[in-house]
Write a structure and sequence with these properties.
16% of the residues are buried. With 233 residues, the chain is an all-alpha fold. It has helices at 2-33, 55-58, 61-82, 85-98, 103-119, 127-142, 147-189, 207-221. The longest helix is centred in the C-terminal third of the chain and has 43 residues, at 147-189.
């Protein structure tokens, strides 16, 4: 009886140990999957925000930056709900800059940038913002945390690719229109063939030019010689 109870205790302890180990492994896997870590440098291409940290309110160091990032994520999400995409973009950019490993900040930021592009007119689309938005959604698409966010990323990437194609077609059309406008102007500037000769420039000099040459010849006759004599004979 005692041996049976002892075996049962050992089995329970062993089961709890296995459960704790499995839970720890699952937690580690979830933690590694829940992290987005883009390369952030000081240059404009990879930096999300240039706004300095509010150390006076949130404190200094990493803990202060993480607290401010959480606060900015909350404010950015509220701005998204209200449809204030520019304010959401400002706050969420700072949140991602201070806490780049949080996937929620990246998703909210991508939504804010997409909202700005959606509200922009076709002729006022910021190409740099368009490139950053595509890059952000691609990073979310490769991330495997939430499959619904992956579907959202793919849907937005398809729409944004159509915008890129539309802009390229518009640039080609504008370039063609400019070249067609320049052709008549160039034709007007080409010199015509003169009344004499087969060359492009006329063989006859204008009357103004011939009178100018005569005047210069008369001045030359009255000019003093270099050897000191009065006139050239």
């Amino acid at each position: 009886m005692q041996q049976r109870s002892k075996r049962m205790k050992n089995g329970i302890v062993f089961g709890l140990a296995l459960a704790s180990i499995a839970g720890a492994i699952a937690a580690c896997h979830q933690a590694s999957a829940d992290t987005i870590s883009p390369q952030i440098n000081d240059d404009d291409a990879t930096s999300y925000s240039r706004e300095p940290a509010n150390a006076a309110f949130f404190g200094k160091g990493i803990s202060g930056r993480m607290s401010e990032a959480s606060y900015m994520r909350f404010g950015g999400e509220q701005a998204l709900v209200e449809g204030n995409f520019k304010e959401a973009y400002r706050k969420l950019s700072k949140a991602v800059q201070f806490d780049p490993g949080d996937p929620t900040g990246h998703v909210l930021l991508a939504r804010s940038m997409t909202g700005i592009l959606r509200k922009s007119k076709d002729t006022e689309i910021d190409k740099a913002l368009l490139d950053r938005t595509i890059r952000e959604w691609k990073m979310i698409e490769r991330h495997d945390v939430d499959i619904t966010e992956q579907f959202e990323a793919r849907a937005n990437l398809r729409k944004l690719s159509k915008v890129v194609k539309l802009l390229k077609e518009r640039e080609k059309a504008l370039a063609l229109a400019r070249s067609n406008e320049e052709k008549p102007q160039i034709a007007d500037k080409v010199p015509t063939t003169g009344p004499k000769g087969n060359g492009v420039v006329s063989d006859e000099l204008p009357t103004d030019l011939s009178s100018e040459v005569k005047g210069k010849a008369q001045v030359a006759q009255k000019a003093p010689k270099l050897d000191g004599s009065d006139e050239i004979r």
